[in-house]
Amino acid sequence: MAACCPQFIIGGTAGGGGVGSGNDIYACEKIVGQRRAKGGVTQWKVKWVGYGSKQNTWEPIEHLAGCEKLIAEFQERERTRIAQIEGANPMEKGAAATAATATAAAAAAAAAPFIARVD
Predict the structure, then answer these.
(1) Topology annotation, domain 8-98
(2) How far is CA 35 from the centre of its chain?
């Protein structure tokens, strides 16, 4: 996959993650994560071109100018992943679960012995 971000020039290491030292040039390959850091700042986990996953770093949006397409691709992958976990239609899944619970409760009630209190 070709990177759509411009080259990323940073003094020291990219995000402090140990990718390189000095004034190195990096290119984003893929966004692989998102988190909220201290202070509520959103950070994006970046896979760098030419580096392994162990060198992925968390970067603030300010470091990712021009990476809007990669961020949008990540967000779409996340939406798809969540939809697959929840099912295509969460409302149908909820209705099916409610019906299954009601059916199980009725079966349990039918199987339970009848106890009546006589005063």
Answers:
(1) OB fold (Dihydrolipoamide Acetyltransferase, E2P) (2.40.50)
(2) 9
